[in-house]
Structure formats: structure tokens, C-alpha cells
């Protein structure tokens, strides 16, 4: 009851912000929300409040920033979905700032001591009171462990989890309504998108999970630290609201003048950005999904990338990884039919899609792009136009690809910023071709064999006994064949009910006829009927009826 009340209060606050920024005008076009429309129209702020300045897109951005971290990060995610929203809105949402005033360091101290169950001075020899950075989810303090190691201490904002859980519950309700009453909502799989977003932001709240993400990424690039360096996690000092990791020293990637003075090769930097992305996606199927400039530093000693903030990570299953590679390689080869077939095989578009029409539509968007010089071709924009086109072919939204698309936009932007002439296809194609050949060739078979071997080791000892039992049953004619089908089961139920009704009907008819015969013959049971006494018919017919019903049940409904 208390949770419902708090959710109601939060809904009222969201309503107040919508009215304040005059975003309620969008809701007036949704018939489903007519009761909500009436509340908004009668709101005193709607009638008496001042008119906010700015375009609709600007007001939307300001409203999301006012509503807090859940909506800020939702807006940041939507800023990459130019296949769903107009470009002027996505451009404005891209300006969303996650920086907020820091909370008092005394509160940070209390959170650390409570989470790690120890006084601060027994954990750190130095704790800097002034936060180095503050965002909507957490803030960072620098410090030093007792053994002298320099660390960055990330502390989650107090009271944040409750508000975010309320916001996610409200978004889940809206998504459920959208899918229930809107065909477009079902096609876009709004519930799945909201669920994926909820998983992402809940992962950001749990700093212990973020520490595990960083540890995994560090392990993936352990042999390539000159390409991407991931700070070490100090597990003894980590808990859900606290993360302690190695402090890094690097140049923020946005400081171009400083990078130039440090002698960083911009062309190498742009190629490394693209290579890091494609290695994460196609080698590891696990990638840093928040690679905006604020989370990337450059080591001035060797020009390697240094990543921080591992709250948002993306992963791909084998099927998505395979078909994504197939699509990219087929695009580069201008094999548009293969692109269309890959979409159908992956289940991204309905199986009855006309391949010829789909191929023609893909060719129409790709050919104008490929008429440009290769270094001017944007992979992100090409995929964006593909997603826009596939909407006409009822392509369902793939939640696992949303983070990938966002990351690709960020990485390509960074790479092209340092080298506008970068041919990203030149970097991507060898990696993709090599990956596909490994998956299909002997190396891929051998890798799969090694992966499955431990499971086979458990099953193989049981195979002789199982095989012997099957062969013995087959020899004795006892091998059962069981076919399960929902439609067949429905027919069986109908037949069973029909047989029962038939049995009762025939039995009832026999009783009525028998009573009529007895009445007609004036209770003379020894009278003849067709050469046999009446008592014989009254005894034999029920027995025959019972035997017939039992035989039918035994034959057709043996397992019931």
C-alpha cells in the first residue's frame, strides 16, 4: 500500500513537470489517456502558470533533466534512435547533461563506512573531501589505500534507488498500455525495450555489478593493454553502494589541444577507436556501451585508450552477433539479397516477408550511400537508414541492438572527429571477415567441440545403457511413440467430452425406452421381444453399452 501511494505521489510530480514545460500537449493526441488529459487540463499550473520558452525539443530536454536520472538516461538512449524520433528532437536529447551538484562529503563518508562496515581511517590513508566528479547516479572521490595505492572511490547517491524503482514501475505500466492498445507499440516491443532499459539502469545502481563489468572487460583486453586499458578493481573495498578502483592518469579525449601537445597521433587514435569497438562486439560479444567523451581518456605515454564508468555494458547472443556480422559484410559487398535473407533468418522481420521487395528497398537506401567515397560512408547512418526502412516490413525492435547502435554512434563520432577521412570499413572488414571465417571454418568447429566436450563427458557414460534399453523395447514391440501437440490435445478433449455425452444420451434413451417397454407389456418381463424375453434385453443392453464405452475409451483415450 505504501509503495502504491509513493508511486501515486511520483506520478503527480511527473504530471506537474509535464504541465510546467507544456509537454501535456502530446498527451492530448492519445485517446487512451483521456482521463489523464482531463486532470492536466484542470491543473492550476496549466491554467495560470507561465508559458515556458523554447521549442518543444528544448522543453522536452529540460523536463527530462528536471525529472532526474531515470529520465535523463532514457533521453540519452532515445537520442540515438533517429529511426523512431525526428532528428531535431534526437539532436536536442543528445545535449542532456548528467552532471548535477555533488552531495555532502560527510554523507559519502557515512555511506562508505556503513557499506564496508569499518571506519574510514582504517580503510584509506587519505580521502579527498572535494568530489572529483558528480553525476546523477554517483560521485567520485580520490583517495589512497593504507598500502599507498592511489584509488578512485565511487559512491552512490543516497535515496536514489527508491525513486528509480518508482519511475521504472510507471514506465513499465505505460509500456504495457502501449502494447495492449497499440499495434505500433507491439511492433516496437515497448515492454521489452523498457525491460532492457530497466536492467541497464539497475545495473548502474549496483556498483558491485559495475565492478564485475570492469573486471570482465579488463580480462578481455589483458593482452592488449596498449590498445585499451581498464583500471584494476580492488574487491575488498567494493559493495553495492561503493566501488574502489585504481586511479588513472590520462588526458580527456575531448581536450584535443592537450593531446596534440602530448604528441598523440590522431590518425592512429581514430583507427584504435574503431578497432576497439569491433573487437569488443565480434570477438568478445561484450562491449562498453557508454563510450561518450566523458568516459574516455588517453594515456599520454603510448596513446592507448583508458575507459572508466562501466555501469552500462552490452552483450550479444550468438545469433545476433552472427547476423550482425553477416549484414555488415553483405552491405560492404553490396549483396542486398543476403542482407534481406539475414533479416528473415534472424527472425527480425516476419517469415512471410517478400524477399524481392525487401531487397529492392534495401538497395534503394544503400546505393546512394555507396556512391560516396568510402571514407565518407557512415556505418551508424547506414544502419539507421536500414532500421527506418525495415519499419515498413514490420521489423520488431531488437532490444539487444539498442545499446549497440548507441555505442556505434559514439565510437564513429570519436573516430571521425580525429580523422574525418577515416575509412571505417577498411578497419572493420578484415575483423569481420576473420571472425566469420573462424565461426564457419575448422577453427570454429574445433572451438565449439572444445566448448561442448565437458558436457559430453557427463553424458557419454550413460549412452550404452540408454541405447540398450531403447533397442530392447524396440525388439519387444514396447517402444512408445508419444506425440504432443496442443491442437491434437484439444481434439482429444472434445472427443472425450463427446463420448461421455453420447454414453449418457444413449444410456438415458435406453432407460426411457426400457421403461416404455415395461409399461407397454404391463410389467410382464417374461414376454418375448424379437424371440427373446424382455428381461434378457433389459440386462444385455446396458452390459453391451458399458463394454462399448470402455473399449472406445481404452483405444482412443488410453492415457487419460
TrEMBL record:
> Hey, which family's this protein in?
Belongs to the protein kinase superfamily. ADCK protein kinase family.
Q: MF terms per GO, please?
A: ATP binding; kinase activity
Q: Which UniProt keywords apply?
A: ATP-binding, Cell inner membrane, Cell membrane, Kinase, Membrane, Nucleotide-binding, Transferase, Transmembrane, Transmembrane helix, Ubiquinone, Ubiquinone biosynthesis
According to the record, the segments passing through the membrane are 502-522, 534-556
| Alphabetized InterPro entries for the sequence | ABC1_dom, Kinase-like_dom_sf, UbiB, UbiB_bact, UbiB_kinase
Classification via SUPFAM superfamilies: Protein kinase-like (PK-like)
**Upper taxonomic lineage:** Bacteria, Pseudomonadati, Pseudomonadota, Acidithiobacillia, Acidithiobacillales
Q: What is this protein called?
A: Ubiquinone biosynthesis regulatory protein kinase UbiB
Q: Which organism is it from?
A: Acidithiobacillus ferrianus
Domain ABC1 atypical kinase-like, residue spans: 95-342
A Gene Ontology annotation in the biological process aspect, one of them, is:
ubiquinone biosynthetic process
Q: In which pathway does it act?
A: Cofactor biosynthesis; ubiquinone biosynthesis [regulation]
Amino acid at each position: 500500500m505504501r509503495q502504491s501511494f509513493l508511486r501515486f505521489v511520483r506520478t503527480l510530480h511527473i504530471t506537474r513537470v509535464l504541465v510546467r514545460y507544456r509537454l501535456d500537449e502530446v498527451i492530448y493526441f492519445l485517446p487512451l489517456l483521456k482521463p489523464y488529459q482531463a486532470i492536466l487540463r484542470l491543473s492550476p499550473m496549466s491554467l495560470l502558470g507561465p508559458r515556458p520558452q523554447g521549442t518543444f525539443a528544448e522543453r522536452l530536454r529540460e523536463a527530462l533533466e528536471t525529472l532526474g536520472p531515470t529520465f535523463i538516461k532514457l533521453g540519452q538512449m532515445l537520442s540515438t534512435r533517429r529511426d523512431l524520433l525526428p532528428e531535431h528532437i534526437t539532436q536536442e536529447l543528445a545535449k542532456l547533461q548528467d552532471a548535477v551538484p555533488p552531495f555532502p562529503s560527510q554523507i559519502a563518508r557515512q555511506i562508505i563506512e556503513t557499506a564496508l562496515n569499518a571506519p574510514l581511517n582504517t580503510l584509506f590513508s587519505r580521502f579527498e573531501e572535494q568530489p572529483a566528479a558528480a553525476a546523477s547516479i554517483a560521485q567520485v572521490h580520490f583517495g589512497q589505500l593504507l598500502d599507498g595505492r592511489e584509488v578512485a572511490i565511487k559512491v552512490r547517491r543516497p535515496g536514489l534507488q527508491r525513486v528509480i524503482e518508482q519511475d521504472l514501475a510507471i514506465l513499465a505500466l505505460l509500456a504495457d498500455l502501449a502494447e495492449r492498445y497499440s499495434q505500433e507499440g507491439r511492433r516496437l516491443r515497448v515492454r521489452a525495450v523498457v525491460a532492457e532499459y530497466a536492467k541497464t539502469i539497475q545495473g548502474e545502481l549496483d556498483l558491485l555489478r559495475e565492478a564485475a563489468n570492469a573486471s570482465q572487460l579488463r580480462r578481455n583486453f589483458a593482452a592488449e593493454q596498449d590498445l585499451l586499458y581498464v583500471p584494476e578493481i580492488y574487491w575488498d573495498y567494493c559493495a553495492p553502494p561503493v566501488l574502489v578502483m585504481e586511479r588513472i592518469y590520462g588526458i580527456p579525449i575531448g581536450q584535443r589541444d592537450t593531446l596534440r601537445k602530448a604528441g598523440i597521433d590522431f590518425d592512429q587514435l581514430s583507427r584504435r577507436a574503431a578497432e576497439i569497438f569491433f573487437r569488443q562486439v565480434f570477438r568478445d560479444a561484450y562491449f562498453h556501451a557508454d563510450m561518450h567523451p566523458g568516459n574516455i581518456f588517453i594515456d599520454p605515454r603510448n596513446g592507448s585508450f583508458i575507459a572508466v564508468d562501466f555501469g552500462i555494458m552490452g552483450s550479444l547472443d550468438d545469433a545476433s552477433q552472427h547476423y550482425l556480422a553477416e549484414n555488415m559484410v553483405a552491405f560492404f559487398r553490396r549483396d542486398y539479397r543476403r542482407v534481406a535473407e539475414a533479416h528473415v533468418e534472424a527472425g527480425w522481420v516476419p517469415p512471410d516477408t517478400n524477399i524481392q521487395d525487401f531487397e529492392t528497398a534495401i538497395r534503394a537506401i544503400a546505393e546512394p550511400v555507396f556512391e560516396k567515397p568510402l571514407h565518407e560512408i557512415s556505418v551508424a547512418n547506414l544502419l539507421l537508414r536500414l532500421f527506418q526502412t525495415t519499419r515498413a516490413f514490420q521489423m520488431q525492435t531488437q532490444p539487444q541492438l539498442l545499446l549497440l547502435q548507441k555505442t556505434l554512434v559514439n565510437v564513429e563520432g570519436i573516430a571521425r572527429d580525429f580523422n574525418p577521412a577515416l575509412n571505417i570499413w577498411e578497419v572493420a572488414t578484415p575483423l569481420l571477415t576473420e571472425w566469420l571465417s573462424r565461426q564457419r571454418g575448422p577453427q570454429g568447429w574445433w572451438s565449439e567441440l572444445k566448448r561442448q566436450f565437458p558436457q559430453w563427458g557427463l553424458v557419454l557414460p550413460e549412452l550404452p545403457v540408454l541405447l540398450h534399453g531403447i533397442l530392447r523395447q524396440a525388439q519387444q514391440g514396447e517402444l512408445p511413440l508419444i506425440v504432443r501437440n496442443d491442437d491434437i490435445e484439444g481434439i482429444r478433449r472434445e472427443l472425450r467430452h463427446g463420448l461421455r455425452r453420447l454414453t449418457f444420451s444413449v444410456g438415458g434413451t435406453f432407460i426411457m425406452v426400457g421403461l416404455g417397454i415395461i409399461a407397454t407389456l404391463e410389467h410382464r418381463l417374461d414376454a418375448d421381444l424379437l424371440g427373446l424375453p424382455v428381461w434378457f434385453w433389459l440386462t444385455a443392453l446396458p452390459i453391451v453399452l458399458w463394454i462399448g464405452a470402455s473399449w472406445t475409451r481404452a483405444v482412443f483415450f488410453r492415457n487419460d
